[in-house]
Amino acid sequence: MLRRLPKAPTKEKAQVVFGATLRGFREAQALTQEALAERADLHTNYVSSVERGERNLSLHNIVRLAYALDIEVSVLLRPLDKRQQP
Protein backbone atom coordinates (compact mmCIF):
# COMPACT_ATOMS: atom_id res chain seq x y z
CA MET A 1 0.00 0.00 0.00
CA LEU A 2 1.38 3.40 -0.97
CA ARG A 3 1.68 6.03 1.70
CA ARG A 4 0.23 9.42 0.75
CA LEU A 5 2.78 12.16 1.00
CA PRO A 6 1.69 15.53 2.35
CA LYS A 7 1.14 18.21 -0.25
CA ALA A 8 3.56 21.08 -0.29
CA PRO A 9 1.98 24.44 0.53
CA THR A 10 1.17 26.68 -2.41
CA LYS A 11 3.70 29.33 -3.35
CA GLU A 12 1.43 32.00 -1.88
CA LYS A 13 0.95 30.10 1.41
CA ALA A 14 4.70 29.49 1.70
CA GLN A 15 5.41 33.19 1.17
CA VAL A 16 2.84 34.22 3.80
CA VAL A 17 4.16 31.71 6.36
CA PHE A 18 7.77 32.75 5.72
CA GLY A 19 6.84 36.42 6.00
CA ALA A 20 5.05 35.91 9.29
CA THR A 21 8.00 33.94 10.64
CA LEU A 22 10.43 36.66 9.59
CA ARG A 23 8.27 39.34 11.21
CA GLY A 24 8.09 37.34 14.44
CA PHE A 25 11.86 37.04 14.72
CA ARG A 26 12.36 40.70 13.77
CA GLU A 27 9.87 41.91 16.38
CA ALA A 28 11.30 39.56 19.03
CA GLN A 29 14.61 41.37 18.58
CA ALA A 30 12.86 44.77 18.67
CA LEU A 31 14.16 45.60 15.21
CA THR A 32 12.40 47.87 12.76
CA GLN A 33 12.05 46.82 9.15
CA GLU A 34 14.57 49.55 8.37
CA ALA A 35 17.12 48.14 10.82
CA LEU A 36 16.71 44.60 9.50
CA ALA A 37 16.99 45.80 5.91
CA GLU A 38 20.18 47.67 6.73
CA ARG A 39 21.72 44.66 8.48
CA ALA A 40 20.82 42.40 5.54
CA ASP A 41 21.85 44.99 2.92
CA LEU A 42 18.35 44.94 1.44
CA HIS A 43 15.86 47.72 0.74
CA THR A 44 13.24 48.45 3.40
CA ASN A 45 10.45 48.07 0.84
CA TYR A 46 11.75 44.60 0.01
CA VAL A 47 11.69 43.50 3.67
CA SER A 48 8.19 44.94 4.03
CA SER A 49 6.89 43.05 1.00
CA VAL A 50 8.53 39.82 2.23
CA GLU A 51 6.76 40.17 5.57
CA ARG A 52 3.44 40.69 3.76
CA GLY A 53 4.01 37.48 1.80
CA GLU A 54 4.29 39.26 -1.53
CA ARG A 55 7.82 38.13 -2.46
CA ASN A 56 9.21 34.82 -3.61
CA LEU A 57 12.68 35.14 -2.12
CA SER A 58 15.92 33.83 -3.51
CA LEU A 59 17.96 31.48 -1.37
CA HIS A 60 20.63 34.17 -1.10
CA ASN A 61 18.19 36.67 0.41
CA ILE A 62 16.87 34.09 2.87
CA VAL A 63 20.46 33.53 4.01
CA ARG A 64 21.08 37.28 4.26
CA LEU A 65 18.00 37.76 6.43
CA ALA A 66 18.92 34.86 8.72
CA TYR A 67 22.44 36.21 9.18
CA ALA A 68 21.04 39.70 9.85
CA LEU A 69 18.86 38.20 12.59
CA ASP A 70 21.77 36.07 13.87
CA ILE A 71 19.75 32.86 13.59
CA GLU A 72 20.23 29.65 11.65
CA VAL A 73 18.80 29.68 8.14
CA SER A 74 16.79 26.55 8.90
CA VAL A 75 14.94 28.34 11.70
CA LEU A 76 13.31 30.68 9.19
CA LEU A 77 12.18 27.72 7.09
CA ARG A 78 11.11 25.40 9.91
CA PRO A 79 7.41 26.42 9.88
CA LEU A 80 7.29 25.25 6.25
CA ASP A 81 8.75 21.83 7.07
CA LYS A 82 6.35 19.05 6.13
CA ARG A 83 6.50 17.73 9.69
CA GLN A 84 5.02 21.04 10.88
CA GLN A 85 2.05 20.91 8.51
CA PRO A 86 -1.33 19.68 9.78
Description:
The chain is 58% helix and 0% strand. With 86 residues, it is mostly helical. The longest helix is centred in the N-terminal third of the chain and has 18 residues, at 11-28. The protein has a single domain, classed as Orthogonal Bundle (434 Repressor (Amino-terminal Domain)). The chain has 5 helices and no strands. The mean pLDDT is 94.
Brief descriptors of the model:
86 residues; mainly alpha; 5 helices; elongated
In total, the number of domains comes to 1
| Number of helical stretches of at least 4 residues | 5
First-residue to last-residue Cα separation: 22 Å
Helix content: 55-70%
Task: Write a brief caption for the model.
The two termini are 22 Å apart. The mean pLDDT is 94.
List the helices and strands and how they pair.
Layout: H1 11-28, H2 33-40, H3 44-51, H4 59-69, H5 73-77
Helix pairs in contact: 2-3, 2-4
